[in-house]
Design brief:
Largest sheet: 3 strands, antiparallel
Shape: globular
Number of helices: 2
Radius of gyration: 11 Å
Strand order of the largest sheet: 1-3-2
Order of helices and strands: EHEEH
Distance between the termini: 26 Å
Oligomer: single chain
Mean pLDDT: 87
Length: 69
């Protein structure tokens, strides 16, 4: 079973979804931490934790660059 680890805090769910799309396009597994996915009509204005599979962490940081800090 994959171990999910914290990659970055996105400022909101829209940005988190964009980051996840970018990571997935690179073949990396990524998701918003389930407890952060609470939203109103599909969008949340609060920070969301973006998670990746532990073995993809370094590559994910490279892909997102400064955004992943």
């Amino acid at each position: 079973m994959a171990k999910w680890v914290h990659l970055a805090m996105a400022p909101n769910s829209t940005v988190a979804e964009m980051w996840i799309d970018i990571l997935r396009e690179e073949g990396l597994q990524a998701m918003i931490r389930p407890s952060d996915a609470v939203s109103f009509m599909g969008v949340t204005a609060v920070e969301c934790r973006v998670l990746v599979v532990e073995e993809d962490l370094e590559r994910a940081r490279e892909v997102l660059g400064d955004d992943a800090k």
